Amino acid sequence: MDWQAITAAFDRLDAALDVVAGLNFDALTTAQWLTLLGRCETARRRLPVPEHQLINHLARQPGQRRRTGRQTVACDC
Fold it and tell me: At the top level of its lineage, which domain of life is listed (predicted)?
């Protein structure tokens, strides 16, 4: 998969999260709230998968280490 396809997928994820964050849940029943909380938990547990794939890939790469935000990652830049 190429860079454009990957960034497009992340863009769609960002857009979907923006939509969900803007929803109003006031009219839902307690059962519906619980169902959606379960879905939020499932989504939250899935999000680290691509993050860990990226981190582990970078950790295996030779080259300098550099600080990027909150993490130190391998970089041959």
Answer: Bacteria
* Residue length of the chain: 77
Which helix H or strand E contains 71, and what residues bound it? strand 71-75
Backbone angles phi, psi at 55, to 5 degrees: -60, -45
CA dist., res. 69 & res. 75, Å (int): 14
Closest to 19 measured CA to CA, from 1, 2, 43? 43
pTM above 0.85, yes or no: no
**Within the chain, which residues score under 70 in pLDDT?**
64-77
48-60 vs 30-46: helix axis angle to the nearest 10? Answer: 10
Phi, psi of 68, rounded to the nearest 5 degrees: -130, 105
